[in-house]
Amino acid sequence: MVSQIQEKQAPWQRQLRDVVTNVDELLSHLNLTQEDCLIKQPFPLRVPWRFVSRMKPGDPNDPLLLQVLPTAKEWLKVPGFSQDPLAEAQSNPVPGLLHKYQGRVLLTVAGACAIHCRYCFRRHFSYQDNNPGRAGWQPCLDYIKTDSSIHEVIFSGGDPLLATDEYLAYLVDKIAEISHVTTLRIHTRLPIVIPERINKKLIKSIIRPKLKCVVVIHCNHPNELDFSVKKSLDQLAAANITLLNQSVLLKGINDSSSILKALSEKLFHYGALPYYLHLMDKVQGSAHFDVDETTAKTIWQELVAQLSGYLVPKLVKEQADALSKIPLL
């Protein structure tokens, strides 16, 4: 029986609670067995049923399944891969804030995600030390106030939209009070994995007249996009929020120009512009997803030949201590 508390929860909150965390349950649902799956792992399985519903039963190579299924390959220790590939610990002047690039800072608003992507570059990140909570944001706000070169604040995590509407509204209000901040950017996977998270109350909590709001969704394959996602993006666009997408180039998932072409075209149809195509950050446990630079450049050049310029994402990589993301072409 559903409790009274559960009945009062919004649909997205119920979906967030009722996620798949058991490998056997996921594979059984998809009519699959996989000897190589990793039942116990330091970075546990977590995937909403909404995302599972887009996977193809009986297909062990489904591109959505491969993004979330733990395997024994994650235990391989590969040279060049580390727990902190971007050296973020060196750009963490106060808890909850990362300052790597000129003019913008990143706040780790939430320390969790609705989905655990196996290639996540923050899978080893110390969220315990970087999720200050409502009472602990003042040092971050003071840091931003004292640096007039900062014009953009980025909400990240984890997934910042896991925070409550009230919590987000409080933080956005504080940021809007800082005169030199003009842009709020939110990086999130929730419009993809739990589209119901996007609603009028959320939108009201993140938009302010003073701040240009940009939402960057994280979508890697066209199969991730369905009508429920389009509905969520339509609501954001109707609020005059700029919609961008960034993808990670992943071996066996989207490492072909035909898949990326379909993704760009579908994103545009859904109202989001392709923004970045990232080489994967070399985090320990993800080497089996890695696409080398030469292959990546070939794929991107094929994409350029097939798409209008505004549909071609920038091919980039991120490098510790670099002053910006590094364009590869």
Number of strands: 11
| CATH architectural name of the largest domain | Alpha-Beta Barrel
User: What's the helix-strand series?
Assistant: HHEHEHHEEHEHEHHEHEHEHEE
CATH uppermost class of the largest domain = Alpha Beta
CATH homologous superfamily name of the largest domain?
A: Aldolase class I
Rough outline: globular
Percentage of residues assigned to helices: 25-40%
The rounded distance between the terminal residues' Cα atoms is 57 Å
- Structural class label: alpha/beta
Q: Cα-atom Rg, whole angstroms?
A: 19 Å
Mean pLDDT: 90
Q: Walk across the major sheet and give the strand order.
A: 3-4-5-6-7-8-9-10-11
Largest sheet: 9 strands, mixed
Tally of discrete structural domains: 2
CATH topology of the largest domain: TIM Barrel
* Tally of contiguous helical segments: 12
Q: What percentage of the residues does DSSP assign to strands (E)?
A: 15-25%
What would you note in describing this structure?
The structure is a single chain. This protein has 329 residues and is an alpha/beta fold. The protein has 2 domains: 4-75, no CATH class; 88-327, TIM Barrel, CATH 3.20.20. It has 12 helices and 11 strands. It has helices at 4-8, 11-17, 23-29, 49-52, 63-68, 138-145, 165-176, 190-193, 200-206, 227-238, 257-269, 293-306; strands at residues 19-20, 47-48, 97-98, 104-108, 152-156, 183-188, 212-218, 242-249, 273-279, 314-317, 326-327.
Sum up the structure in keywords.
alpha/beta; TIM Barrel; 2 domains; two-stranded antiparallel sheet; 30% helix
